[in-house]
Amino acid sequence: MRRLIASGLALGLLAASPLPAAAETFDSKAQQEIRDIVKAYLMEHPEVIIEAVQGLEAKQEAARAEQAKGQIAGLRDKLIRDPRDQVLGDPNGDVTLVEFFDYRCGYCKQAQPILMELIKAEPRLRVVLKEFPILGPDSVLASRAAIASVPQGKYAAFHEALIATRGALSEDKIMEVAKSVGLDTAALKAGMSKPEIATQIDDAHALAEKLAINGTPSFIIGDNLVPGAIDLETLKKLVAEARAACTGTC
């Protein structure tokens, strides 16, 4: 598939782009021969286009991350000290990791066991969970249910069970998962419609927008915004760097 996309992109570029000014000194026949040579090379080596696209994406991602650093400092209290957010690990930890997640996100599901391993490896780590449903109505429903479970004192168990659930998250499925962790489903349903729950989710979206976060999972560790699932060793390194650089609230 990548080869096909790259080939199509190469042909599109050749058709749409004029030759460089230096090449315009050649007559039309020579220019066409140059195009044919370039086309043949790109068709034979589409990885060149793939590498160029990946390089551009990496530069754009780095630019977004650098821009986010300036925003993180000004939003730190909202990111790490919002009393509505649930916390895993050490509530009084010396370093805070913030995760924006969606219960239907496959990469979030992959990241969850890695995050739990990180908490075991880093006993002083504080993990703040930002309910950030972006994958449709079922995601919103799951986040509403998770937040509504807080008064029953079973958020952590419910959160882990929802993240581990495969397939659709219909209301019936969410209630089935809720019952499995000992939640009172009648009370849960009643709590899900509270306006303050919608406000909390809206506030998470507004915060994400300020940081140009548009995908899940997205992690904030120290001054670093890291999009996508990350391996355990990289997370450990980022936590260590944040701890070493910390001079105040981390």
TrEMBL record:
Name of the protein this chain belongs to: DsbA family protein
Superkingdom assignment: Bacteria
Record-linked PANTHER family: DISULFIDE BOND FORMATION PROTEIN D, GLUTATHIONE S-TRANSFERASE KAPPA
Keyword ATP-binding part of the UniProt annotation: no
Stretches assigned to the Thioredoxin domain: 52-244
Coiled-coil region(s): none
Keywords (A to Z) from UniProt: Disulfide bond, Oxidoreductase, Redox-active center, Signal
Signal sequence interval, chain numbering: 1-21
Organism encoding this protein: Oleomonas cavernae
Example GO molecular function: oxidoreductase activity
